Amino acid sequence: MRLAKYLAHAGVASRRAAEALIAAGRVSVGEEIVTDPARDVDQHSRVALDGKAIAGPERRVLYALNKPVGVLSTARDTHGRPTVVELVPAHGLRLYPVGRLDADSSGLILLSNDGELANQLTHPRFQVPKTYRARLGGGPIAADRLQSLRTGVQLEDGLTAPARVRRVGPAGANTIELTIHEGRNRQVRRMCQAIGHPVIELQRTRFGPLRLDGLAPGAHRRLADAEVERLRALARRSPGRGDATERGAL
């Protein structure tokens, strides 16, 4: 097994983050610092991170969490602020968030120790759709503004891919449901700002086939094997293009 994949399966980090750890010279095999993520290793290779031995692949798990506003989508915070990892009992496993929701946003986020699956679910080339409900400022939203979101919005980092958008509530309401498959930094907020309707409240309601339904704020549940397999199948089916990594789509 390649070293980066070994680290990901051990729950150390996602595949891409593992590659960064290796490139930084923090990973050793035996007594040798290794900087090649393609180095072949197995359970007998004595792999270590920062001098601490890695036991090998953990049992892989995936949790769904309804992230409250004010909680950070990171494994740890140097300023002591609450994180999503603190809301899910790890039982000795090294969990980390799959993708990001910014601190001011709420809703469905996944946590896992399966780096390979995390990469598939967040990498834009796999085109896994994510749906958000946004309450917007700027008064009632005109039909042409919604159409702009559907055809693509010009941002400072380029034109966005077409989004699926519908109005939620009666005509003239200022709440929309929006589905994207890209993962640009704070993308939903920037798209809405670009059409003159800044986001007041933002919640992720779906991640691929998973729905937030029935999960209270701060609550979590472990996904069933069938749900995990549906996520894997979705990523395998997705044609995908591009090679940018999700940095937080909100």
Question: What is the tally of helical segments?
Answer: 6
Shape: elongated
Beta-strand content bin: 15-25%
The helix/strand series, from N terminus to C terminus, equals HHEEEEEEEHEHEEEEHEEEH
Q: Which architecture of the largest domain does the CATH hierarchy give at level 2?
A: 2-Layer Sandwich
How would you describe this structure in keywords?
3 domains, 250 residues, Alpha-Beta Plaits, 9-stranded mixed beta sheet, alpha+beta, 4-stranded antiparallel beta sheet, Structural Genomics Hypothetical 15.5 Kd Protein In mrcA-pckA Intergenic Region, Chain A, elongated, single chain
Outline the structure in words.
The chain is α+β, with helices and mostly antiparallel strands and 250 residues long. It folds into 3 domains: 3-53, RNA-binding S4 domain (Structural Genomics Hypothetical 15.5 Kd Protein In mrcA-pckA Intergenic Region, Chain A); 62-125 and 212-237, Alpha-Beta Plaits (2-Layer Sandwich); 127-207, Alpha-Beta Plaits, CATH 3.30.70.1560. Helix content is 22%, strand content 25%. It has 6 helices and 15 strands. Strands 5, 6, 7, 8, 11, 12, 13, 14 and 15 form a 9-stranded mixed sheet that branches. It has a 4-stranded antiparallel sheet with strand order 2-1-3-4. A two-stranded antiparallel ribbon has the order 9-10. α1 packs across α2. The longest helix is centred in the last third of the chain and has 13 residues, at 225-237.
Give a topology summary.
Elements: H1 3-9, H2 15-23, E1 27-29, E2 32-33, E3 47-49, E4 52-53, E5 62-67, E6 96-98, E7 106-112, H3 115-122, E8 130-136, H4 143-151, E9 154-155, E10 158-159, E11 164-168, E12 175-180, H5 187-194, E13 199-207, E14 210-211, E15 220-222, H6 225-237
Parallel strand pairs: 7-13
Antiparallel strand pairs: 1-2, 1-3, 3-4, 5-7, 5-15, 6-7, 8-12, 8-13, 9-10, 11-12, 13-14
